[in-house]
Write a structure and sequence with these properties.
By secondary structure, the chain is of the alpha+beta class. It has one domain. About 25% of the residues lie in helices and about 30% in strands. It contains three helices and five strands. The protein has a five-stranded antiparallel β-sheet. β3 and β4 form a beta hairpin.
């Protein structure tokens, strides 16, 4: 029985990987937060088009616990597109690390981020629901290059 449980866990049936669309949504959410802060500080008016996330490459994925809940830690790189970026800015590889928890309903995920705390205070976690369109929940799971997709449910 123990061997069966270990094999189910190792192949992702117990804690499946988050869908790629969820990871893209998490990165886009963090990017839009950063862009909003920068545009408020640097320019009086926001540009017509903001940069968007593109070419995501997952380099690591593991399950851990955050705030007592199972959480997927996903690490990788991405590129930006649009937003009036120069060619050099679009070619620049950017690193990311996101923490994702499953939501209450099937196909729902939350971005988990540490909230800003004062020195010496314990870390508090902020949960942000990620919006996904219905076609994004069909099983496009996070996989390493060359691996077959698995159903996220």
């Amino acid at each position: 029985m123990l061997l069966l449980c270990l094999s189910l866990w190792s192949c992702g049936l117990v804690n499946p990987r988050p869908p790629r669309a969820v990871i893209e949504s998490a990165i886009a959410h963090k990017l839009s937060q950063t862009q909003a802060v920068l545009y408020r500080q640097l320019t009086p008016a926001a540009p017509d088009e903001l940069a968007q996330v593109g070419r995501i490459r997952i380099t690591a994925h593991q399950w851990t616990a955050v705030a007592g809940q199972p959480t997927a830690a996903v690490v990788g790189t991405y590129h930006l597109k649009g937003g009036g970026l120069s060619g050099a800015q679009r070619r620049q590889t950017r690193n990311f690390e996101v923490y994702l928890q499953r939501g209450d309903a099937k196909g729902q995920w939350r971005l988990v981020e540490p909230a800003i705390a004062r020195a010496g205070e314990p870390v508090q976690w902020q949960m942000t629901p990620l919006q996904q369109s219905p076609e994004d929940t069909t099983g496009d799971t996070l996989e390493r290059p060359g691996a077959e997709a698995r159903d996220p449910a």
